[in-house]
Amino acid sequence: MAQRKTVRLTPDDDKTLRALYRHMRIPIDQFGSRAGDLERLTDAFNAATGQSLSTGAILHYMLRRRKDGVWVTFNGAHRRAEPLSDGLFSSDEWIIVDAIYVQFGVGADTFLYDTRMASDFSARVALAIGRVIRGDVLAAAVIQRRKDDLLPKLRREGFEDIGQIG
Protein backbone atom coordinates (compact mmCIF):
# COMPACT_ATOMS: atom_id res chain seq x y z
CA MET A 1 0.00 0.00 0.00
CA ALA A 2 1.33 3.45 -0.87
CA GLN A 3 2.13 5.68 2.05
CA ARG A 4 -0.05 8.79 2.28
CA LYS A 5 2.04 11.92 1.91
CA THR A 6 1.58 14.47 4.66
CA VAL A 7 1.52 18.12 3.63
CA ARG A 8 4.67 19.98 4.54
CA LEU A 9 4.35 23.10 6.62
CA THR A 10 7.00 25.70 7.24
CA PRO A 11 8.09 26.00 10.88
CA ASP A 12 6.05 29.23 11.14
CA ASP A 13 2.93 27.58 9.69
CA ASP A 14 3.39 24.60 12.01
CA LYS A 15 3.66 27.00 14.96
CA THR A 16 0.46 28.76 13.82
CA LEU A 17 -1.45 25.47 13.54
CA ARG A 18 -0.25 24.37 16.97
CA ALA A 19 -1.31 27.70 18.50
CA LEU A 20 -4.79 27.47 16.94
CA TYR A 21 -5.11 23.84 18.06
CA ARG A 22 -4.10 24.71 21.64
CA HIS A 23 -6.54 27.61 21.65
CA MET A 24 -9.45 25.37 20.58
CA ARG A 25 -8.50 22.65 23.12
CA ILE A 26 -10.23 19.92 21.08
CA PRO A 27 -8.35 16.59 20.86
CA ILE A 28 -7.68 15.29 17.35
CA ASP A 29 -9.95 12.25 17.78
CA GLN A 30 -12.94 14.44 18.59
CA PHE A 31 -12.82 16.25 15.25
CA GLY A 32 -14.58 13.27 13.67
CA SER A 33 -17.75 14.10 15.54
CA ARG A 34 -17.09 17.86 15.60
CA ALA A 35 -16.74 18.59 11.89
CA GLY A 36 -17.73 22.24 12.36
CA ASP A 37 -14.85 22.75 14.78
CA LEU A 38 -12.40 21.18 12.31
CA GLU A 39 -13.70 23.51 9.60
CA ARG A 40 -13.20 26.51 11.92
CA LEU A 41 -9.64 25.38 12.71
CA THR A 42 -8.86 24.89 9.01
CA ASP A 43 -10.42 28.24 8.01
CA ALA A 44 -8.47 30.07 10.74
CA PHE A 45 -5.23 28.35 9.72
CA ASN A 46 -5.74 29.10 6.02
CA ALA A 47 -6.61 32.74 6.76
CA ALA A 48 -3.57 33.19 9.01
CA THR A 49 -1.11 31.53 6.63
CA GLY A 50 -2.48 32.22 3.15
CA GLN A 51 -2.74 28.48 2.55
CA SER A 52 -5.74 26.68 1.03
CA LEU A 53 -5.50 23.29 2.72
CA SER A 54 -8.52 21.03 3.16
CA THR A 55 -9.83 19.84 6.50
CA GLY A 56 -8.61 16.36 5.58
CA ALA A 57 -5.06 17.60 4.93
CA ILE A 58 -4.97 19.51 8.22
CA LEU A 59 -6.34 16.55 10.17
CA HIS A 60 -3.91 14.17 8.48
CA TYR A 61 -0.98 16.48 9.33
CA MET A 62 -1.97 16.54 13.00
CA LEU A 63 -2.57 12.77 13.13
CA ARG A 64 0.81 12.09 11.53
CA ARG A 65 2.57 14.37 14.01
CA ARG A 66 0.76 12.66 16.88
CA LYS A 67 1.79 9.22 15.60
CA ASP A 68 5.37 10.52 15.41
CA GLY A 69 5.06 11.65 19.05
CA VAL A 70 5.61 15.33 18.29
CA TRP A 71 2.12 16.82 18.55
CA VAL A 72 0.47 18.94 21.22
CA THR A 73 -1.18 17.17 24.16
CA PHE A 74 -3.67 18.66 26.57
CA ASN A 75 -3.00 16.42 29.57
CA GLY A 76 -6.71 16.41 30.43
CA ALA A 77 -7.20 20.17 29.92
CA HIS A 78 -9.22 19.74 26.72
CA ARG A 79 -12.81 20.70 25.96
CA ARG A 80 -14.89 17.59 26.37
CA ALA A 81 -17.35 16.52 23.70
CA GLU A 82 -20.74 15.23 24.60
CA PRO A 83 -20.39 11.49 25.21
CA LEU A 84 -21.73 9.07 22.65
CA SER A 85 -24.99 7.51 23.65
CA ASP A 86 -24.44 4.28 25.55
CA GLY A 87 -27.41 2.93 23.62
CA LEU A 88 -25.96 3.59 20.17
CA PHE A 89 -25.87 -0.17 19.46
CA SER A 90 -27.12 -3.23 21.30
CA SER A 91 -24.52 -5.81 22.30
CA ASP A 92 -25.62 -7.97 19.34
CA GLU A 93 -25.23 -5.01 16.98
CA TRP A 94 -21.76 -4.25 18.37
CA ILE A 95 -20.71 -7.79 17.48
CA ILE A 96 -21.76 -7.08 13.89
CA VAL A 97 -20.15 -3.62 13.79
CA ASP A 98 -16.90 -4.99 15.27
CA ALA A 99 -16.82 -7.80 12.68
CA ILE A 100 -17.40 -5.34 9.83
CA TYR A 101 -14.62 -3.11 11.20
CA VAL A 102 -12.14 -6.00 11.29
CA GLN A 103 -13.24 -7.23 7.84
CA PHE A 104 -13.02 -3.68 6.48
CA GLY A 105 -9.37 -3.68 7.54
CA VAL A 106 -8.85 0.07 7.81
CA GLY A 107 -7.80 1.81 11.02
CA ALA A 108 -10.54 3.85 12.67
CA ASP A 109 -8.57 7.12 12.42
CA THR A 110 -8.84 6.83 8.64
CA PHE A 111 -12.59 7.48 8.89
CA LEU A 112 -11.83 10.95 10.29
CA TYR A 113 -10.19 12.25 7.12
CA ASP A 114 -11.27 9.88 4.33
CA THR A 115 -14.94 10.58 3.74
CA ARG A 116 -15.21 7.98 0.97
CA MET A 117 -13.92 5.26 3.29
CA ALA A 118 -16.16 6.46 6.15
CA SER A 119 -19.23 6.43 3.88
CA ASP A 120 -18.46 2.92 2.66
CA PHE A 121 -18.03 1.66 6.23
CA SER A 122 -21.23 3.39 7.34
CA ALA A 123 -23.16 1.89 4.40
CA ARG A 124 -21.94 -1.63 5.24
CA VAL A 125 -22.98 -1.19 8.86
CA ALA A 126 -26.40 0.16 7.82
CA LEU A 127 -27.01 -2.83 5.53
CA ALA A 128 -26.00 -5.27 8.25
CA ILE A 129 -28.01 -3.82 11.14
CA GLY A 130 -30.91 -2.32 9.21
CA ARG A 131 -30.54 1.30 10.24
CA VAL A 132 -28.32 4.24 9.39
CA ILE A 133 -25.89 5.81 11.84
CA ARG A 134 -24.31 9.11 10.80
CA GLY A 135 -20.75 8.49 9.60
CA ASP A 136 -19.10 10.92 12.03
CA VAL A 137 -20.95 9.39 14.98
CA LEU A 138 -20.09 5.87 13.85
CA ALA A 139 -16.41 6.82 13.39
CA ALA A 140 -16.24 8.39 16.85
CA ALA A 141 -17.87 5.32 18.41
CA VAL A 142 -15.47 2.91 16.70
CA ILE A 143 -12.47 5.05 17.70
CA GLN A 144 -13.66 5.01 21.30
CA ARG A 145 -14.05 1.21 21.20
CA ARG A 146 -10.55 0.90 19.81
CA LYS A 147 -9.19 3.15 22.57
CA ASP A 148 -11.04 1.05 25.14
CA ASP A 149 -9.22 -2.03 23.74
CA LEU A 150 -12.46 -3.58 22.51
CA LEU A 151 -11.18 -3.76 18.93
CA PRO A 152 -7.91 -5.16 17.61
CA LYS A 153 -5.24 -2.96 16.09
CA LEU A 154 -5.39 -3.54 12.36
CA ARG A 155 -2.29 -4.22 10.33
CA ARG A 156 -3.36 -1.96 7.49
CA GLU A 157 -3.45 1.12 9.70
CA GLY A 158 -1.59 3.84 7.95
CA PHE A 159 -2.01 6.57 5.47
CA GLU A 160 -2.45 6.46 1.76
CA ASP A 161 -1.87 9.09 -0.91
CA ILE A 162 -2.90 12.65 0.11
CA GLY A 163 -4.70 13.01 -3.22
CA GLN A 164 -7.30 10.49 -2.03
CA ILE A 165 -8.55 12.64 0.85
CA GLY A 166 -12.23 13.31 0.21
What proportion of the residues is helical, as a percent range? 40-55%
Number of domains: 2
How many beta-strand runs? 0
Biggest β-sheet strands, sense, barrel: none
**Proportion of residues in β-strands:** under 5%
Molecular shape:
elongated
Name the poorly predicted regions: 156-166
Radius of gyration: 16 Å
**What is the helix tally?**
7
How far from one another are the termini?
18 Å
Task: Give the averaged pLDDT, no decimals.
Answer: 81
Structural class: mainly alpha
Query: How do the helices and strands follow one another from N- to C-terminus?
Result: HHHHHHH
What keyword list fits this structure?
single chain; 166 residues; mainly alpha; 2 domains; disordered C terminus
Describe it for me?
There is one protein chain. This protein is mainly α and 166 residues long. The chain has two domains: 1-82, no CATH class; 91-157, no CATH class. It is built from seven helices and no strands. The protein has helices spanning 11-24, 35-49, 55-67, 91-104, 110-113, 115-129, 135-147. α1 runs antiparallel to α2, α4 packs across α6 (115-129) and α6 packs across α7 (135-147). The longest helix is centred in the first third of the chain and has 15 residues, at 35-49.
